[in-house]
Write a structure and sequence with these properties.
Layout: E1 3-4, E2 10-17, E3 20-27, H1 41-44, E4 77-83, E5 86-96, E6 102-111, E7 116-125, E8 131-145, E9 148-166, E10 174-188, E11 202-214, E12 229-238, E13 248-257, E14 259-260, E15 267-279, E16 306-319, E17 323-325, E18 330-347, E19 357-370, E20 375-386, E21 393-400
Antiparallel strand pairs: 1-2, 2-3, 4-5, 5-6, 6-7, 7-8, 8-9, 9-10, 10-11, 11-12, 12-13, 13-15, 14-15, 15-16, 16-18, 17-18, 18-19, 19-20, 20-21
C-alpha cells in the first residue's frame, strides 16, 4: 500500500518483518530506476535463461473435504483443580482442522471418590457467518455459608451465534454482535443440615444478547494494548418460559481503557465492571455466582443484585527472551509484570449502601506458545491481598489464552 509524500520526495509503504507490520519510508530517486523491457513469453521461457525438466504429470483423486483426519488432539497437558475432596488432576487438549473451520478445547478430570467428572468443553464452527459456539462444563463451586464451606455443583451449557470483525469508524476497530441460549443447573453436594438460609438450587435458563466494541491496538514489542477502549454490554433474560426456575434479568457491562505511559510500552489499564439484576433473587446472589473478579477475596464474596468494580493495572515489560526450547516446541516471547489495585462490591439494598472492598497486588506474566506456535498461553503468577472484611492474602497461578 505505497503512498507518495506531498513533496514527491519519499514513498511510505507497509513492510513486514520478524517484528510484524510496520511503516517504512524510501527516497524517491528516479535516476536510480532501471527500465524493465517488454519481454515476450517465449523470451521469458528461453532455455538460454532457464534450464528445467518437466515433472511427470500426476492425477489426484478429487473428493469432498473431510475435517475429521486433522481434528485429532494435538497435545495433552496435565493440570490440577480443587474440589470438596481436595486436589484433583485433569488433562487439557485442543485441536482444529487444517482449514480452521472447526476448533475445540477440552479439559477433563474425574474424581473417583465422588464418582463425578469435571470438564469444560468448547467447540467453535467458523464455516459460515454467524460463527457458532457451543460450550458446556460441569464444575463444583465453594461458597462461604455460615461457619463452613458449602459446595454446589454447577452444570452449564450454551449455544451462541456471533457476527464479528465489523468495522465502525476506523480501519482497525471492530464490533461484535452476539446472541444465544444458556442453561445452568445448580445442585447441592454438601450437607444442608443447619444451613440457613438454604441456597437457591435448580435451573437458571436464559436468552442473552451482547454487543462489543473494540478499537484498542498493540504494536511491535507491546505487552498489552496501548491505546483505545474495549467495551462490552450484555443483557441476560432468565424466564420460566425457557425452563428456568427463576425469573430475572441481568444487565452487565465492562469498559477497559488503555493509556500509554511515558516509558516505552508501559501501560495504565483501568477496567470498570458493573451489573444490575431485576426480578427473583438467588440466595447466592444473581451475579456473584458468576464471579465478580475482585482479587484478594473469595470468588463468591460480593453478593448482591447490583455491584461495581474498578480494577486498575499498571503494566510494564521486563524483558523479551524470544527463545525456544525443545526444538522450538516451547517459545518464550515476553516476560512482563503488573501492579494492580481493585475496589468493588455488591449489595441487595439501595446503591448508596454499597460498601467497596479494596485489594492490591502484583502479577508476573509469561507470554509463551507451545507445540511450535499452535497453542498460545499466558502463564500468570500473582499475589493479592484483600484490605477489608473477608480479605485474604494469597498467591495464585492462572493460565490465559
Amino acid at each position: 500500500m505505497p503512498d507518495v509524500s506531498p513533496d514527491g520526495n519519499k514513498i511510505a509503504y507497509v513492510s513486514y518483518s520478524s517484528k510484524g507490520y510496520d511503516i517504512a519510508v524510501v527516497n524517491v530517486d528516479p535516476n536510480t530506476w532501471k527500465e524493465v523491457g517488454n519481454l515476450s513469453s517465449s523470451q521469458l521461457l528461453s532455455t538460454e535463461a532457464i534450464s528445467w525438466e518437466a515433472e511427470p504429470s500426476v492425477k489426484y483423486k478429487m473428493h469432498d473435504y473431510n475435517p475429521l483426519p486433522s481434528l485429532t488432539p494435538k497435545f495433552w497437558l496435565p493440570l490440577s483443580y480443587y474440589n470438596e475432596n481436595g486436589p484433583q488432576t485433569y488433562v487439557y487438549t485442543m485441536s482444529s482442522d487444517i482449514l480452521g473451520q472447526h476448533q475445540y478445547a477440552l479439559e477433563f478430570g474425574y474424581d473417583f471418590q465422588a464418582k463425578r467428572p469435571q470438564y469444560l468443553f468448547q467447540y467453535v464452527n467458523d464455516q459460515w457467518l454467524p460463527q457458532i459456539v457451543f460450550q458446556a462444563y460441569d464444575n463444583v463451586i465453594p461458597y462461604d455459608w455460615l461457619l463452613y464451606t458449602l459446595w454446589l455443583r454447577e452444570t452449564y451449557g450454551s449455544l451462541s451465534f456471533y457476527l464479528y470483525d465489523n468495522r465502525v469508524f476506523y480501519e482497525w476497530d471492530r464490533q461484535l454482535l452476539a446472541c444465544g441460549f444458556e442453561q445452568t443447573n445448580l445442585s447441592n453436594i454438601s450437607s444442608l443440615e443447619g444451613a440457613s438460609p438454604k441456597p437457591s438450587l435448580g435451573n437458571i435458563n436464559g436468552f442473552f444478547v451482547a454487543w462489543r466494541y473494540k478499537n484498542s491496538r498493540m504494536y511491535a514489542k507491546s505487552i498489552s494494548p496501548e491505546d483505545g477502549i474495549d467495551l462490552t454490554l450484555k443483557v441476560t433474560m432468565n424466564s420460566p418460559a425457557l425452563g428456568s426456575n427463576y425469573n430475572f434479568t441481568t444487565y452487565s457491562s465492562n469498559l477497559s481503557t488503555y493509556l500509554s505511559m511515558p516509558l516505552s510500552h508501559h501501560v495504565l489499564a483501568p477496567t470498570l465492571y458493573g451489573f444490575y439484576s431485576k426480578g427473583d433473587i438467588l440466595e447466592q446472589s444473581n451475579y456473584s455466582w458468576k464471579y465478580l473478579p475482585l482479587r484478594g477475596y473469595p470468588g463468591n464474596d460480593s453478593a448482591g443484585n447490583k455491584g461495581v468494580l474498578l480494577s486498575t493495572e499498571y503494566r510494564f515489560p521486563l524483558f523479551r527472551p524470544e527463545a525456544g526450547l525443545l526444538y522450538g516446541n516451547t517459545f518464550f516471547e515476553n516476560v512482563w509484570s503488573d501492579l494492580f489495585f481493585d475496589a468493588g462490591g455488591a449489595t441487595f439494598g439501595p446503591a448508596a449502601n454499597l460498601k467497596l472492598k479494596r485489594s492490591y497486588g502484583t502479577e508476573l506474566n509469561f507470554d509463551t506458545s507451545f507445540m511450535w506456535g499452535y497453542y498460545a498461553l499466558t502463564v500468570k503468577f500473582g499475589y493479592a491481598k484483600g484490605l477489608d472484611e473477608n480479605g485474604e492474602e494469597k498467591f495464585y497461578i492462572t493460565f490465559g489464552m
